[in-house]
Amino acid sequence: MGLGSAETSSFMGDFLEKCGGYGVVDGGFATELERHGADLNDPLWSAKCLISSPHLVRRVHLDYLDAGANIITSGSYQATIQGFEAKGFSKEEGEALLKKSVEIACEAREIYHDRCTKDSLDFAENGSSERRPVLVAASVGSYGAYLADGSEYSGNYGDAVTLETLKDFHRRRVQILANSGADLIAFETTPNKLEAKAYAELLEEEGIDIPAWFSFSSTDGTNAASGDPISECASIADSCKQVVAVGINCTPPRYISSLISSIQKVSSKPVVIYPNSGETYDARSKQWTRTNGVVDEDFVSYVGKWKEAGASLFGGCCRTTPNTIRAISKALSENSYVTN
């Protein structure tokens, strides 16, 4: 269901108000699938589970809802029609799998709300029997995520990859996800300005009328992964009328505060942040190394600082768990501001 432009601009503000001023996004997806026994050693990565074990995908969504998430993201980050075709699926089968990623998330929300309705104890804490607002975001990973060669972490796609290459690559996937029943599209781990521009132009050209957010990754606290200044990336997102939040994900926690400031210099849209645990990913060995990873309690100690810096939506990316999200949710409710 599409929104008019006035509704789009107030979409996230209205949602945040219903949440009590701040919203909680879910956490790491692939890590949790692996914890439940999925083998993700595959170019499709977490999207493989849409084929082999959709029940695990639903289980992870439910774990995050139980932990307090207001926004759950579909398992489509690494799901592309091109990627499915490379594994022998037809175009139609690939499109059906993309839709399925959102359907599973919507199912999880329904199960969660049914459970809450039956068990009003879930609401005893805040003394209200109102259902916690939950949005389903359709996840779109970068072109580099599809390549599965580590370039999503550098944003260096080479001179052969143009704005048109990126728009053509993402076009059909974005059309499908926009009509899948999701509440918004989350363009995640965007490593460079070029891809942000491709997304913004695609949304415009295709007349996509569901809200979106753009979130960027950074390795230094100033620039996107490619070296493009975060302020320039955020400006592109800000100028796109479908974008209802701008943010940072898949980035070490220590860089987040300065990145929030950079975004706020160029945008007054709500800021969404969902960093990694702080560990480092080695694209060659496809392993996480525990350099200066932070445990859940430490990660959550940042939340107050990020809130002060101006963020409105908080979650986790790689290697964060439902425990992280539960702790964030608790930290926000303990010192949440009260809406008049």
From TrEMBL:
Residues 11-332 form the Hcy-binding domain. InterPro entries: BHMT-like, HCY_dom, HCY_dom_sf, Hcy_S-methyltransferase. Its cofactor is Zn(2+). GO terms for molecular function: S-adenosylmethionine-homocysteine S-methyltransferase activity; zinc ion binding. Keywords: Metal-binding, Methyltransferase, Transferase, Zinc. It comes from the Eukaryota. One of its GO terms (biological process) is methylation. The keyword Aminoacyl-tRNA synthetase does not apply. Pfam families: S-methyl_trans (PF02574). The keyword Mitochondrion does not apply. SUPFAM superfamilies: Homocysteine S-methyltransferase (SSF82282). Zn(2+) binds at C250, C317, C318. This is Homocysteine-binding domain containing protein. It comes from Trema orientale (Charcoal tree).
